[in-house]
Amino acid sequence: MAPPLSRWDDIVALILNSSSQAGYKLLYDSPKARQEVDHHWQASGGPHIVCILDVYENMHHGKRCLLMIMECMEGGELFSRIQERGDQAFTEREAAEIMRDIGTAIQFLHSHNIAHRDVKPENLLYTSKEKDAVLKLTDFGFAKETTQNALQTPCYTPYYVAPEVLGPEKYDKSCDMWSLGVIMYILLCGFPPFYSNTGQAISPGMKRRIRLGQYGFPNPEWSEVSEDAKQLIRLLLKTDPTERLTITQFMNHPWINVSPSSSHSRQGVQQEQGYGAGGWWLCLEALIQGWNGPMHTVSNPWVRDSFQQSMVVPQTPLHTARVLQEDKDHWDEVKEEMTSALATMRVDYDQVKIKDLKTSNNRLLNKRRKKQAGSSSATQGCNNQ
């Protein structure tokens, strides 16, 4: 359902009477702009998604435009917040909580058949500078519905792009899951799994590494990160989208699903279930030790849920804050390179105009026409003789 468009002069009253600050985004009116407003409006009010307060329609610099009034996100970007921590350690448990918040937003979108298609740290903002600030997803400029045709638009940001987006293959909501894997990787170490060695925002070598899924967990940054976290990243960065986790599977993964503050101890779980010290826990441990696959594939819900209740994401100090701070200038350059590259990478097929060859005024085409005309004239002259 499209949002109601308010009268432009109403904005003055809104600003004067409002006791709180608000953010805004100005869009020149077009089908694509209205699609962005529509998708964001549908998602507005969802968990961990920036809310739209109102939408206004008027002329700006002689062009019709749309003004989106949104809640003010005063806390800044996700990675800027981590950079500003200084000597305060950023832990794996905190990373898990952040990923659960992002996953909650994506789960809401996917349940409404919307693919965001540009999930990246720059689009994840905090509501305030306070410790209890809420992380929210914004910018629906490249979102699309997935209920009609499969997504075919090559629309992405280099470091967070899914492999299938780099080629002619169709892709769907699984490209958001790939982005979650890249964001999680950066959260746990401070640098992306795929990078360009040439200074380009996305080089041929980087494209190849993304397509082949070539990345690693180098030391010392990854030496203390749990195997559960690494396993989840592997499941998200699968090159085959059909093998990649869905958002439901991601949210049910024990590294994501367990609330660290409410996880039960072994003794507490045993007492609640009425079992003695040597009861079902030892049996459960034996089952888990004999299982080498991810926990979300365990068919027995009793075993899976019991294990998830027992798991606690470790509070291991990560290298993330240090790496981000040391490479702060480089990180800013990477974001600038990605932004400048988006203009050539994001092409919407439904807005591409195919020119008629008969009316085209292309210089190379005109040169070929003249050459063909000359050849035809020469051939006709020989026939006349």
Automatic annotation (TrEMBL):
Keywords tagged on the record: ATP-binding, Kinase, Nucleotide-binding, Phosphoprotein, Serine/threonine-protein kinase, Transferase
GO MF, one example: kinase activity
Compositional bias (Polar residues): 373-385
EC number of this enzyme: 2.7.11.1
SMART domains with a match to the protein in the record: S_TKc
Residue numbers spanned by region Disordered: 360-385
UniProt key word Heme: no
Domain of life of the native organism: Eukaryota
One Pfam family matching this protein: Pkinase
Catalysed reaction, written as an equation: L-threonyl-[protein] + ATP = O-phospho-L-threonyl-[protein] + ADP + H(+); L-seryl-[protein] + ATP = O-phospho-L-seryl-[protein] + ADP + H(+)
Family according to the record: Belongs to the protein kinase superfamily. CAMK Ser/Thr protein kinase family.
Name this polypeptide is given: non-specific serine/threonine protein kinase
